[in-house]
Amino acid sequence: MKFRPALQIAGIINMVIAAAMLCPLAITVYYKDGDTFVFIYSIIICAVIGAVMFTLFRGKGFEISHREGFLVVSFSWITASLACSVPFILSGYFPSLVDAIFEGVSGITTTGASVLTDIESLSHGMLFWRSMTHWIGGVGIVLLCLAILPLLGVGGMQLYKAEASVVSSDKIAPRVREMARIILAVYLGMSISLLVILKLLGMDLFNATLHMFATVSTAGFSPQNASVGYFNSVYIEAVIVLFMILGATNFALHFKFFRGGYRVYTKNSEFKFYIIVMALASVLIGLNLWLSGETGIFNSFRHSIFQVVSVTTTTGFSTVDFSAWPAFGQLMLLALMFIGGCAGSTTGSIKSIRLLLMIKLGYKEIYRLVHPHAVVPVKLGGRLVEPEILRSVMGFTVLYLLVFIISTCALGWLGVDLTTAISSAAATLSNVGPALGLAGPESGYAFMPEPGKWVLILNMLLGRLEIYTLMILFIPAFWRG
User: Fold this and answer.
1) In-domain check, residue 146
2) Helix segments in 325-449, DSSP class H
3) Residues of the domain holding 42
4) Which end of the chain, C or N, has fewer beta carbons within 10 A?
5) What is the largest CA-CA distance in the chain?
6) Beta strands in 272-345 (DSSP E)
């Protein structure tokens, strides 16, 4: 097992994040809000550590094996999380080290869970950095580095497979470096488009930028305590809903849209399933809110649609405190946390394609009870799904639920109530952010005992790396041979 590639790439990531901190440094200087030296010291710390690691472990022409790819990706995300936490640690806004790391991990993993009780008390520079970590993490630290690795003589496909352990193997381009450029181009195009639209709808440039960061990355940090609800604008909510859906859609479909038109979406089984699930959930929750007398019919469906899309895409924005909704609405949102968006997107959770395959597999087994000798293949988009893919989907789903159960029990052991424990475990493992109970959108995770915060930090990392990539490091066989 070669550790040098992982340490060298970690050095690169530290330097990249140090360079990214120049943006919030400029913001804090412009607004004169007192955090200038926090970012100067953070840049120096990350840049020096990165430069030392890169110099000490620099190699020429080394190759990364399949196993080493998992080590590189896991170590890269842990490194990125710690580097993003440095300004939070030095700022004094967070009462403890675990709180600062929690916020950093939540940002870079695009989870959007927060331990802050008064977000608006942060400086402009700190708010900017907090949301910018979303934008960086959305496309993936590893993917951002894929354009750099070929210059070091490192093969990138192993990293791509470890970073995106999804069912879909649809490649946009044959070379990883070209594919990285295409994904980044789509990501930047969506970001600029949303920024312009939000500005035209009346947001000031600062708010528009930060909400753009959080929306296209399906992350959810807002500089306002009331999140998107602060603006009380149907038009802003509608635009954010649209871009949350786009952010949680396979980026390969966006690229192909410019070549083949809108039919690339209507022909994609996962995308259609993903849209149908959100539409059905929006109607059911909207009716429930209206019939329960919570609010009028327009606002019932307005809030229902926004929260369903926000939770399903694992963004975590809010316009209302959905933890105070009737039980049916809360249970529906909890279920949607486990579904997520499409493979090949910035979203977290199990992913729609896996759930769709599980449904098809379940139907196949029921059908075989009626016709024991029938050969019933599982197909997706008219193509046969190989048995090994189905086994992988089943294995991932079982492991995902097992991690969820264990983390829920761990929170319960620490004295967290049942509703909060279940929803917090689900919200962090699925990278949604806000949960139910004491961890609702208007509360956050400040109340969580310190060991519980570490459990949720691990959940966020496991969810972002789709379980396997990080957990494989704890298997003794991984280190042998």
Assistant:
1) yes
2) 327-336, 352-370, 387-413, 418-429
3) 4-233
4) C
5) 75
6) none
